[in-house]
Amino acid sequence: MDIVPFVDLAAHHAPVRDQIQAAVEKVLLHGKYILGPEVEAFEQGFATMVGAKHAIGVGTGLDALRLAFEAAGVKAGDEVIVPGNTFIATALAVSAIGAVPVLVDCDPVTYNIDPGLIRAVITKKTKAICPVHLYGQAADLDAVMAIAAEFGLKVIEDACQAHGTRYKGRGCGAIGDLGTFSFYPGKNLGGMGDGGMVTTNDDALAAAVRRIRSYGELKKYHHVEKGVNARLDTMQAAILNVKLPRLEWANTNRRRAARAYEKGLAGIAPIVVPQGPADELAHIYHLFVIRTPRRDELQHFLHEKGIQTGIHYPIPIHMQPAYAELASSGSRLPVTTKIAGEILSLPMFPELTDEQIARVCGAVAEFHRA
Ligand SMILES: Cc1ncc(COP(=O)(O)O)c(C=O)c1O
């Protein structure tokens, strides 16, 4: 049976395979395996793409978040507001520095943090807000930034799924105090291993992130704080330099696929199709997430038809054993809790063909006719 894959990285890399091999070979020969020219070039290219003054390459998206929180002055015991509906790494980064993630419910249409619920959880300990541009769609930054300004809070954008997303013409990751990105292989811009980036327009915050990622040193063997080793791998930077110029093409093609899904799935009750933003550049469709009350049955049916799907995410943070202490926040997270049982991510990647999309939509329709 012909499989419709969830993502097809081999197809994505095929046109640049020679360039990637040459870039890796170059690093192999020059021998600068830690940071070096590839990391610098990628930091510059990425900063330009986002429209931020600085970009600092780090080990992972989780590192990016953790370093951004530390640079922003979040300390043990402080509280950071994060969406209840996100990948667990957003909360783990807060916990990693001994601070406390405070979960806020999501909007039922965009699945992003509902800014109307933020004020109610602000306390004297609140230090920062971390909106996540989930699935690639810009969060309501105007509202978040206004609340942050009113209460003197820092804003750290989790743009780990939003490489190239624009919010009212500006790059996500360049609007809050700091932005954070992941280059996990399946991201719209992904490496062949782990990678991450912090972006900021603030010189002092950029310098702090650079220090913390390299043992808290100002220069070699001069340590002014207790940092970590969280540098972007040079081989990954070499690969990402080849891939960065194709990001816009990739995002445009994901939007094309999203429009085709919208058409193909229209009118299939009770499927809820994501309502794309009025400004199409505000979504890069890292994931195309539909909702249906019979999610598990539909996923099984599609699997039987050779169609791979995913769930992002099946168990919300407040229901994870790792966060038993947050279980009581479930009472203020009704939307997050409900949608976790209904969401289904359909195949989504730039090379997805019209035929593959038609097959997925046909199978979804067939399931509901049966
Ligand atoms: C929203 C979000 N935040 C944080 C991360 C963490 O990134 P990484 O996997 O590179 O640590 C990811 C991706 O995995 C993510 O999707």
Q: Overview of this structure, please?
A:
The protein has 370 residues and is an alpha/beta fold. The protein has two domains: 9-105 and 113-245, Aspartate Aminotransferase, domain 2; 247-369, Alpha-Beta Complex (Aspartate Aminotransferase, domain 1), CATH 3.90.1150.10. Helices cover 37% and strands 14% of the residues. The chain has helices at 9-13, 17-30, 36-50, 61-71, 89-96, 141-151, 203-213, 234-243, 247-265, 295-304, 334-339, 354-369; strands spanning 54-58, 79-83, 100-104, 126-129, 154-158, 166-167, 170-171, 178-182, 196-200, 217-219, 222-223, 288-291, 343-346. The strands form four sheets. A seven-stranded mixed β-sheet has the order 1-9-8-5-4-2-3, sandwiched between helices. It starts with 8 loop residues before the first helix and ends with a helix. It binds pyridoxal-5'-phosphate.
Describe the protein's topology.
Elements: H1 9-13, H2 17-30, H3 36-50, E1 54-58, H4 61-71, E2 79-83, H5 89-96, E3 100-104, E4 126-129, H6 141-151, E5 154-158, E6 166-167, E7 170-171, E8 178-182, E9 196-200, H7 203-213, E10 217-219, E11 222-223, H8 234-243, H9 247-265, E12 288-291, H10 295-304, H11 334-339, E13 343-346, H12 354-369
Parallel strand pairs: 2-3, 2-4, 4-5, 5-8
Antiparallel strand pairs: 1-9, 6-7, 8-9, 10-11, 12-13
The structure holds pyridoxal-5'-phosphate (PLP).
